[in-house]
Amino acid sequence: MAGMDKKKVLFIDRDGVIVKERQVDSYESIEYIPHVFEALREISKKTDYLLVMVSNQDGVGTVSFPYDEFQGPAERIFTTLRGEGIVFDDVNIDLSMPEDGLPTRKPLTGMIDRYRDERYDMSSSFMIGDRLTDMMLAKNMGCRGFLLNPDDMEIPEELDSVIAMKASSWLDIAGYLIPDGTLPHRCAAVQRNTKETEIAISVDLDGTGEGRIETSIGFFDHMLDQVVRHSRFDITGDVKGDLYVDEHHTTEDTALALGEAVRKALGDKRGIERYGYEIVMMDDTVATAAIDFSGRPEFIWDAEFTMEYIGEFPSELIKHFFRSFSSASCCNLYIHATRGGNSHHTAEAIFKAFARALRKAVRRIPGDSRVQSTKGVL
Q: Could you tell me the strand order of the sheet in which 332-337 lies?
């Protein structure tokens, strides 16, 4: 429309999306979907989407679902939403039954056909629902959809391009719609206790490079400091191992716990770069690290050390650390370093290159929530 910005719309179902899927015929039956207030409040504050409810309520007005039993709880839902700073610009509720065949029943567009004019940008609008009929409505309106809590729902091929995200949480939807600076952080914590080690590690992939992993092994702690600083992950870790035996169990289990924490924090890996690559030069050595969060562990090592020990740390355990990380994080990991350099420099360059490759691989692609694989999963 000339001289006027078109408006974007979030069409939102009610049952299964805002409140739990059931016949909401009493105040006691209202149960809100986790994070719906938090997400919709942030979307309302930080985006310019209009919120429009589109809901079918089967059987309202019948003996089994009297209108008065529907109306009170429905008003309570909207009152609660307004109290949380969430205001719907329009509410569309169809009370017909499927057998009535009315054009207002989803996936038909009768309730919201008025939004298909030049004042609204359907190509930038979304339908948020928990059923395939909601996604079919999105297709019929010329917008895209967020399928909330899809579980193992089989998606027809004709809806693949319509569904912008299969979301397990309202936070996923908010993360997609809200500008990058306000995306929720990807965090995970792992507790690993064995007869050989006791480890607690927490990871924030969207941090600033703060924290420290304490293992009581001087050189190893120094290398883990490089991972924290150069990955820019916020990592805290407390590691107690059987150092009276040797450093092997502590090194291996630290890598396993760290790899598991990164894997958990990445979730289903939607919207990440997936691949990371870095070359780091340090005086007399050059190290290369390449990583692919493919969901498959594979490790290739091409590096040697001129010293058997760096300080009191066995240099052979460096290879074992990265192999263990690859296994626990389910990534392909390639490490290469030029031969003959000072062993301390070689090790430090490898850890720095690894950390910087990690940062690149987990980076979010702005505005893209797709999985970087033709398979659709990683």
A: 275-282, 285-292, 332-337, 298-302
**Dihedrals phi, psi of 119, to nearest 5 degrees:** -80, -15
Say which of 5, 13, 25, 368 is annotated catalytic.
13
299 vs 296: CA distance, rounded Å? 10
Over range 13-37, report the average pLDDT. 91
Q: Residue 195 in 3-state DSSP?
A: coil
13 in catalytic set: yes
Q: Is 153 helix (H, G, I), strand (E, B) or coil?
A: coil
Beta pairing class for 187-193 and 197-204: antiparallel
DSSP string, 19-81: B-SS---SGGG--BPTTHHHHHHHHHHH--EEEEEEEE-TTTTBTTB-HHHHHHHHHHHHHHH
Q: What does the DSSP 8-state code read for residue 369?
A: -
Residue 366 near residue 294, CB atoms below 8 Å: no
Query: What tokens were used for 82?
Result: 């307004």
The answer to whether 288 and 309 are in contact (CB under 8 A) is no
Residue with tokens 């919207």: 271
Rg (CA), the chain: 26
CA of residue 293 relative to chain centroid, distance? 14
Q: Which two tokens stand for residue 226?
A: 């490089």
**Which sign does the torsion angle of CA 173, 176, 178, 181 carry?**
positive
242 given a catalytic annotation: no
CA distance 225 to 331: 21
Nearest 5°: CA angle at 42, between 120 and 232?
A: 115
What are the φ/ψ torsions at residue 2 (nearest 5 degrees)?
-60, 130
Instruction: Indicate which residue of 5, 15, 90, 160 is catalytic.
Output: 15
Question: What is the pTM for the complete model shown?
Answer: 0.58
Q: What is the rounded distance in angstroms from the CA atom of residue 75 to the CA atom of residue 15?
A: 14
Q: Which tens digit of pLDDT belongs to each residue from 78-117?
A: 999 999 999 999 999 999 888 888 999 999 999 999 999 9
The three-state secondary structure class of 292 is strand
